[in-house]
Amino acid sequence: MTRPREAAEQTDEGGYTIIELMAVVLIMGIFGIAMSTSLSAFMRTTRVADDKTSVVGDVRVAEEAIARDLRAANPIDDIAPASVSTYQNSVTFSVYCSSPGTAGCGADRLRSITYQLVSNRLEQVTGSTTRVLVGPNGQTAVPVAQRLGAVVNASTEPIFTYLDKSGRAFDTTGTGSSVTTRRVHDCTKSVRIHLKVISEPRKTTTPYNLVTTVELRNYNEVNGC
C-alpha cells in the first residue's frame, strides 16, 4: 500500500534543470553588463566634472595672478616699434622688487613680467623663467586647440583689452591709425582680462569663459589722455 507513495517521493527530488541554470546565467550576465555600463558612465561623468573643475581652478588662479601683478604695474610697458595689435595677447610691465639680483629683480629694484599667449598657452615670463599658467594637455591625438585647457580666444576676443579713464577701450586691432603703443602705454587706466578655455576635450563650442577688469594703481595721467 505504501509503494506508490514511496515512488512519488523518489521522483520529487530537488535541483535545477539545465534550462533553469542557463536562465540564471543569462540574467546575471545582463545584470553584470548593466552594472558595468552604469559604472563606466559614472566614471566618465566624474572624470569630465573633475576636468572642468581643474580648468576652472587654473583659469581663476591665472587671472588672479595677472590682476595682482597689473595692480602693481609701474605702469605697462610701451612696446613700440611693435604693432599695437601685440597688446591684444601680450602685456609687459615692471613691478617693484626688494632683492636686486634675485629672481629677475634688477639693480633698479624692478622686475619685468610678461603675460603672453603662445600656441594656445597662457605663459608668465619673469626674467628668464617661463611658466605655463593655462595650456592644452591630454591625448596627443586630439588637435591642440581642442585639448583640455587650451586657450581659444578668437581674434575678435583679445585676452587683454585696455581702457582709458572713461572706460573706453583702445582699438588694438591695428586698424586705428590714431592709436599707438605709446598712447596705450600712457593712457591705460584699467585692463580687462578675458580667457576662453576648453573645459572638455573636443567641445570647442562651450569653452569656459572668465572676465576680470583690473584698475592700475600706478596710473599717471599724461597730456592728451
Brief synopsis:
The protein has 225 residues and is α+β, with helices and mostly antiparallel strands. The protein has one domain (39-215).
* Gross morphology: elongated
Beta-strand residue percentage: 15-25%
- Spatial gap, N to C terminus: 122 Å
Q: What is the β-strand count? A: 7
Q: SSE string, helix = H, strand = E?
A: HHEEEEEHEE
User: Oligomerization state of this entry?
Assistant: single chain
What is the topology, as strand order, of the major beta sheet?
1-2-3-4
**Count of DSSP helices?**
3
Overall structural class, as computed from helix and strand content, comes to alpha+beta
Largest sheet: 4 strands, antiparallel
Helix content: 25-40%
Overall number of structural domains: 1
Instruction: Outline the low-pLDDT stretches.
Output: none
The radius of gyration is 32 Å
Look at the structure and give the mean pLDDT: 86
